[in-house]
Specification:
9-stranded mixed β-sheet; 6-stranded mixed β-sheet; alpha+beta; 24% strand; 578 residues
């Protein structure tokens, strides 16, 4: 180790003039970075390899002017920067760890160091290492590696900043382990990660120039998913927060946005030692994800339904709403609005156009949007949204500002696509929305209800199964439901629309746990307005305690659990403990 330090001290003195003046001798190099050969600062570094006969354990590389410019541009961008290399161990052993660090124009600047346990490197044969450049740090002019045995650097590139590990990583070669370290460096291997160093790399708030980073983790698939009443789970602790993660047959990758937690940069711990393949902190491109000039955000944050529910409102990117993409069903956009008034300006006119009996296919006026009853939550598929905007365009109808913002969001995310003559066409996906003005209990029920619609819009297989349950549903109970949907003042659904009926039938059965479904519909069967409109069917539902509804809810719940890991009453897979 003393030998390495001696070489490094000599190297730093020589290196200071290489980048700018090129007065020191540099050698051609076989190792590429950004599709251009690096400068080898010693003859031994030309082939980026230390052989058994080499006396010098160091490889030393300088960036060309073009490479340095590229790295500085990345460093000054919204995503930060890192240097990533792949090291391959040769034959032989070393009592010293493998080392990697930066070199600077100013030799007095101390470099962070990555140290890899020698036995671990030899066991793996080849690993990738990434070292971040702190957001306030000097951009390096090169890098060095050192090891007490034979080794080779097989690749080198600049990447966006990241911190963590990925045991299933590919950078164009075979799958290998990647360890990504913050600007303070550190030791490899590790499985427990403290993301405290992330504050030196990533944004610590949402603003025009930064957004909160996010953590992605991936676990090995599990054959044991438990049951709908007792699902298999993971326990995750992040700083002061604890989360329960439900296992899903279709999702093993999860995203935790740092804006959803108490402390954005903290230690992450998994209880019971699950097989975590990937644990990585990254950041969004703030230029894309920050508010636009009109005050809107159009790029959604990836999140689970459970995280949306408890997301601190002070961490929203704008005051009016936050926009998410449902992680397990990425074609579904989720709006969370600050209040009903804002939500109404986005969706009430669309609601009457799509669903309201007596108004379907028409465009109500602004006074109607302002004064009429609007839904507390919303859900719309791409085809209906396209019809709405095309009718407005064809008739010269002037929409409000927020409806035009919605149109931009839908186009940006591919739910609508531009057609000819100013028209739009249906793309892929749907939107759902809830509001912070709802009480906590109602908000939970509404999110469950609307997210079931998102699933219905997304999965033909699910729609087919819902149709099976719907078509064999008890006749008297269906008669009551049709009365409830069409006569209750706040609903007023068009019961002749079969797609709508099946969609709402499913959502009302699944919006609460099936143990509560009987009471929910029995209560409504006893309401005077419904009982008078259809006394026979309402009486049957009341006397049977809505037994048919409970049975159908259980059937649907079992289906969604087996296919997605959901259960009646909740589509959340990541749940923040209170």
């Amino acid at each position: 180790m003393k030998c390495m330090k001696k070489y490094l001290s000599v190297l730093l003195v020589v290196f200071s003039s290489v980048l700018v003046s090129c007065q020191s001798k540099v050698f051609s190099c076989t190792l590429l970075c950004q599709n251009e050969p690096l400068n080898a600062l010693t003859k031994e570094s030309q082939d980026a390899e230390i052989t058994g006969s080499s006396k010098d354990p160091l490889l030393q590389f300088g960036f060309t002017q073009a490479q340095f410019g590229s790295l500085k541009k990345m460093h000054d961008s919204f995503c930060g920067s890192a240097l990533e290399i792949v090291v391959e161990a040769g034959d032989g052993a070393s009592s010293n760890p493998f080392e990697m660090g930066f070199l600077y124009e100013n030799p007095s600047i101390q470099s962070p160091v990555v140290r890899v346990d020698s036995d671990y490197l030899r066991k793996n044969g080849k690993i990738a290492l990434s070292l971040c450049i702190g957001k306030n740090d000097v951009v390096p002019a090169g890098f060095y590696t050192a090891y007490g045995s034979s080794y080779k650097i097989t690749s080198c590139r600049f990447t966006d900043a990241k911190i963590g590990y990925d045991f299933d990583y590919s950078n164009g070669e075979n799958k290998i382990a990647l360890y990504a370290l913050g600007p303070s460096g550190g030791n490899v291997p590790y499985k427990k990660i403290d993301f405290a160093d992330g504050g030196n790399v990533f944004g610590e708030s949402n603003s025009q120039s930064s957004v909160f980073p996010y953590i992605e983790f991936e676990v090995l698939p599990s054959k044991n998913l438990g049951t709908s009443d007792y699902p298999a789970t993971l326990k995750v602790n992040y700083g002061k927060d604890s989360f329960t993660v439900k296992r899903s047959p279709v999702q093993n990758h999860y995203t935790l946005n740092c804006g959803a937690v108490t402390s954005p940069f903290a230690e992450m711990r998994f209880e019971d030692n699950p097989d975590v393949l990937k644990l990585m902190m990254r950041t969004y491109d703030a230029k894309t994800f920050s508010p636009r000039e009109d005050g809107s955000v159009v790029a959604p944050l990836v999140a689970d339904i459970g995280l949306v529910m408890d997301w601190p409102q002070e961490n929203w990117r704008i005051e009016d709403y936050e926009l998410y993409r449902w992680e397990i069903l990425p074609s579904v956009l989720i709006f969370d609005f600050a209040d009903y008034t804002i939500q109404n300006e986005f969706f009430t006119r669309i609601a009457y156009f799509v669903e309201k009996k007596g108004y379907k296919g028409t465009l109500v006026g602004d006074d109607f949007v302002r004064d009429a009853h609007g839904y507390n939550a919303h859900d719309y598929k791409a085809a209906d949204l396209a019809r709405f905007y095309n009718l407005a365009a064809d008739s010269g109808f002037k929409l409000n500002k927020r409806e035009y913002i919605l149109r931009n969001i839908l186009l940006y995310n591919g739910i609508l696509v531009n057609g000819s003559n100013g028209k739009v066409e249906a793309g892929e996906g749907s939107v759902i929305s809830i509001s912070r003005e709802s009480t906590a209990g109602l908000r939970k029920q509404l999110m469950a209800h609307e997210s079931w619609h998102g699933l219905y819009f997304s999965s033909e297989q699910f729609r087919d199964y819902v149709a099976e349950v719907y078509n064999r549903f008890e006749e008297s109970s269906m008669g009551f439901l049709r009365t409830y949907f069409s006569t209750y003042a706040s609903l007023q659904y068009d019961i002749n629309d079969e797609y709508l009926m099946k969609n709402e039938f499913m959502a009302y059965l699944l919006q609460q746990h099936y143990s509560k479904t009987g009471d929910y519909f029995t209560t409504r069967a006893n309401w005077n307005q419904i009982a008078k409109a259809n006394p026979s069917d309402s009486g049957h539902v009341s006397s049977s305690r809505a037994r048919a509804f409970t049975k159908a809810s259980m059937e649907l719940s079992e289906y969604v659990f087996n296919h997605w890991g959901f259960v009646a009453g909740s589509t959340a897979l990541v749940i923040k403990e209170r």
